[in-house]
Amino acid sequence: MATYxxxxxxxxxxxxxxxxxxxxxxxxLPARGGEHFYFIADYHALTTSRDPAxxxxxxxxxxxxxxxxxxxxxxxxxxxQSDVPEVCELTWLLSTVTGMGLLERAVSxxxxxxxxxxxxxxxxxxxxLMASDILAYDSNFVPVGADQKQxxxxxxxxxxxxxxxxxxxxVLPEFVASANPKVPGLDGEKMSKSYGNTIWIxxxxxxxxxxxxxxxxxxxxxxxxxxxxxxxxxDLLRLFLAPGEQAEWxxxxxxxxxxxxxxxxxxxxxxEVIEEHFAPARKRxxxxxxxxxxxxxxxxxxxxxxxxxxxxxxxxALAACGLR
Length: 324
Ligand code: TRP
Known about the structure:
Layout: E1 3-8, H1 16-28, E2 35-40, H2 42-45, H3 52-68, E3 76-80, H4 86-95, H5 100-104, H6 107-114, H7 121-124, H8 126-136, E4 141-144, H9 149-166, E5 174-177, H10 205-213, H11 232-238, H12 243-255, H13 263-290, H14 292-320
Parallel strand pairs: 1-2, 2-3, 4-5
């Protein structure tokens, strides 16, 4: 039976980029069978977070979002990374068989430092902790965004180097590319918390209207024929619309003339589809927030099972290297 595992950083309120790039796929995968482990990477979050109350709130928001969006928690385990401290032990074991050069080649470290994130030891060994997350559950497949591919390769290298030193201990994982729709932010750059250009998936009413109002447009009149490829609102609509309706909007924008939709019309439609698409999950989220016990129980059950698996792997690794 194949084992799938992925982690998501609690970096803020889940936005459309998080949803289409990761969460949606994690919610859909368990129906195909196999074992599924999805966790909130709160240990990793400490490489950037300095506010305990905010971190706690963000972790809960991600857990609530997965459940509200329909993750089948019978088939998939949902848990907090820090409820499985065994991964920290594995991080140490792996770090002793990993050459400095392997981590020095990790691009995410350099990217993050360039963006102004503190160059801590934790940030540097981030890939070793991520490798432990992956190896702890004997994961075969790791569905993540392309930006995480190198990390999965590093995990594979670390596992191979431990295995060749101490004998077969870890399963070698494979990267699985996430469905990769382009999710542009309000300004047309990639939607990302760090660019301040996100749309929260559960936004609604006036607040949604306001944020969609900020989607970048230009001063061209509705009547002016336009290349749909240059209309950011159409890129956002494409994430939600059936191909037929999408083609219709594009044709009308391309044709221009009397009755062609203006940016205001496209914004109105975008607001409608966001409201509709997330309506059931938004309702479920409200229920989950009103009854925190349900979320706690799901996380506790996930943690308990995940931890048993990780402890078995840890024991195997300790025995292999002579500590048991
Ligand atoms: N680094 C991942 C990200 O930022 C999160 C993560 C942590 C992860 N551990 C993982 C993803 C293990 C997959 C597997 O998105």
